[in-house]
Amino acid sequence: MLFSRFFVSLRSYMMRRVYLLLSLLVLLASPLSAQNLLTEHYQISHLDLSAGLPHNNVNQFFVDSQGFVWISTYGGGAVRYDGYSFMTIGIASPQGWSSNSCKRITEDKHHRLWIAYDERTDVIDMRTLSRTTPRYGNGDVGSMLERPSVSVYNDSKGAMWQVCNDSIFRYTFNDDGTVRHIGRYHYVGNTPDVCIKDVEQDGSVWVCVDGGLYRLKERNGKLEREDIAAVMSQLRGLYVTDVLKQGSRIWISTNMGLYAYDQYTHSLQAFRHTSEAGSLSHDFATSLAESPDGRLLVGTLRGLNVLSDQQDTFAHWDNATAGHPLPSDFVHCLMVRDGQVWIGTETAGVVKLSPRPLLLRNYVYDPRQPSSLSPRPVNAMYVEPNGTLWAGTVEGGLNRKAVGSQDFEHWTVQNSALSHNSVSVLEADAHGQLWIGTWGGGLNRISLQDKQLQHVDMPAEMVAQTNYIGALAYDKYNDALWIGSNDGVFYYDLKTGVLSDPFEDNRIVRGCIGSLVDKDGQLWIGCITGVRIIDLHSRRSGGGQVPRQESATQTRPS
Question: In this structure, which of 108, 122, 262, 363 has its CB flanked by the most CB atoms within 10 Å?
C-alpha cells in the first residue's frame, strides 16, 4: 500500500512536469501569421523620453568603430547609446556642439565623426569628443563645414561625402588624415533630405538630385552626373528617401510608393498602397532594411511593412496591430545589426527588436474548438522527423498535430481501438510504427503512415504485469521493444511478437518510468529504486542469451 501511494504521487508529479514543459517549450511548426512576423519572433523594448532619450524624433542610426550606437534626433541633437545609458551632444551639452537639429552621423577611416546639422557640419575627434577641422593644403575645410548641411556619407572607398543645400562635396584623404582632394557638384533640389548610397560598392553614389535619381562619379578630379538606366526616368519628380540592394533587386523608397529595379532586365516594378489586403500600407515609404532572416523591411508613414518574397505582398505592423501595436506609425529610419532591428520614429523614439531565445506557443484545450488539444495534462510526446507532433494525455487519449496545422486529431477509447484514455508513453520503432503505452490498458500501436491503431494482446499470465506502462524503448540492435511497467521490465520481440522475461528478477524492477538508449547501446530505465542499465549488445539475436544489466550499486554478469 505504501509503495502504491508513493508511485501514484510520483506519477502525478511527473505528469505535472511534462504538462508544464509542453506549455513552455513547444516550438511553432508552422509559419506565423502575417501580423506576428515581428512581434512573435522578437522581444520589444523602447528607447524614448522615459528611458532617457532627449527627444522622440529620430532621424538616423549609426554604429561607430567602437561599437557605440549614435542616434540622430531632431530636437535633442546627437546621442550616443552604450546599451545602458545615453550621452547627449547638443547645444546644452558640455561639449557645446553646434545644434539640436541632428540629421546624419558617419565616421571616416581616421576615426572622426562627421555630423550633419541644419546649420553646419561638425567633425569630431572620437578620442577627445572635441570638434576638429581637417587640414587641406595650406588651410583647412572650415568654410565648407560652415555651410548648412543636409547629409554626410562615407562610401566603400573611404571617401567622405558632404551634402549641402546646393552642393555635394567628396573628400579624399591622405594617410595622416589631411584632405588630399575635394570634388564638387552643384545640384538643384527642393526636398528636406538627399538620399545618397554607394549601391555598387565602387566609390560612386546613387543620389537623388536635379529632380531624379542619378549616379555621381568622380572623373579627372570632377564629380559628374550619369544616368543609371533609362527606366529611372519614371522616378523623375519623386522624393527618393532610401535605396537598398538585395540580391539582383535594388529597392528604392519614395514619397509615391516603393520601386524594385532589376539589374539584369533593367525593369522597374512599382508597389503602391491600394485597397487590396497585402499592399503597401502607405505610399510614403521612408526607409529600407533587410531583416536578419532576409526579409525586406519598409518603413512608411503608416508603420512598418514586411515583404513576403513568394507573393510580393506585405505584412503590416502599425499602431492598430492587435496585441503589440507599434507606438508610432511615423517610421523615419531602420537599422539591422547583430540580429536586432532598430526602428526610429517621429513621435515615439526608438523601438528595438531583439531575437527571442525561443519562439513559443501554447497549445491548450478549448471546449469551443473540437480540434484543440485534448483536456487534462499532457503525459507523453513524440515528434516525427517531418515535424508532426503526437501527444498522449491523462484521460484524454492520443493527439496528433500535422506539421503546418494548428488542429489536433484524436484517438480515444470511445472512437478507436485505444485500450485506455491515459496515454503514459510514446516510442517509435524503425518500421513506421508508434508504440503507445497506457496507464491501465497495456500496449497499443499505430501506423504513422495510415494511422490505423490496434491494441497489442499480451499472454494471459502477463496481462496484469503490463497494464501500467511507464517506459518504452526501441532496441535497434535486436529489433525489439523494451517495456517498463509498474510490475517489471519485459522484452517484446518485434519479429515474432513474443513477450518474455529478459533477465532474472526482471519482475522486481518496480515502478518503471522513463527510459533512454545511449550512444553505446545501453538502455537506462528509471524505477522506484533508482536506475537499471541494460547492455543491449549482450543479447544475441535469436539466441535467448540473458542480457547484462546493472543497478546503481551492482553489476550482474550475463
Answer: 122
- What DSSP letter does each residue of 472-523 carry, written as one string? EEEETTTTEEEEEETTEEEEEETTTTEEE--STTGGG--S---EEE-TTSEE
For residue 145, the SS3 value is: helix
What gap in Å lies between CA 515 and CA 534, rounded to an integer?
11
Q: In what order do the strands lie in the sheet with 196-197?
A: 196-197, 205-209, 212-219, 222-226
Q: Which helix (H) or strand (E) holds 84?
A: none
pTM of the model: 0.64
Is the dihedral angle over the CA atoms 433, 436, 441, 443 positive or is it negative? positive
Measure the CA–CA gap between 457 and 467, rounded to whole angstroms: 11
Residues 404, 389 contacting (CB under 8 angstroms): no
Task: Please state the separation of Cα 391 from the chain's center in Å.
Answer: 26
CA atoms within 13 A on the CB side of 462: 21
Cα distance between residue 283 and residue 273, in whole Å: 5
What backbone torsions phi and psi does residue 25 show, to the nearest 5 degrees? -120, 5
Give the number of other Cβ atoms within 10 Å of residue 234's Cβ: 14
Enter the C-alpha cell of residue 546: 540473458
φ, ψ at 508 (rounded to 5°):
-95, 0
Alpha-carbon torsion (30, 34, 38, 43), positive or negative: negative
Q: Is the CB of residue 466 less than 8 Å from the CB of residue 490?
A: yes
Q: Is 50 exposed, middle or buried (0-12, 13-18, 19+ CB in 10 A)?
A: exposed
State the residue for C-alpha cell 502607405: 282
Alpha carbon distance 174, 178 (integer Å)? 5
Name the H helices within 72-228.
142-145
Torsions phi, psi for 35 (to 5 deg):
-70, -20
Q: Please give the helix or strand (H or E) that residue 7 lies within, else none.
A: helix 2-25
CB contact at 8 A, 110 and 94 = no
CA distance 432 to 410: 19
Handedness of CA 197, 200, 203, 208 (dihedral sign): negative
Supply 529's cell numbers: 529504486
pLDDT per position as a tens digit, 192-207: 899 999 999 999 999 9
Q: In 3-state terms, what secondary structure has residue 404?
A: coil
Residue 302 has pLDDT above 50, yes or no: yes
Q: Report which DSSP code applies to 1.
A: -
Chain CA centroid to CA 529, Å: 44
* Amino acid letter, 73: T
Residues β-bridged to residue 378: 393
355-364 confidence digits (pLDDT tens)? 887 666 789 9
Q: What is the mean pLDDT of residues 474-499?
A: 96
Q: Report the candidate in 366, 323, 328, 365 with the shortest Cα–Cα distance to residue 344.
A: 328
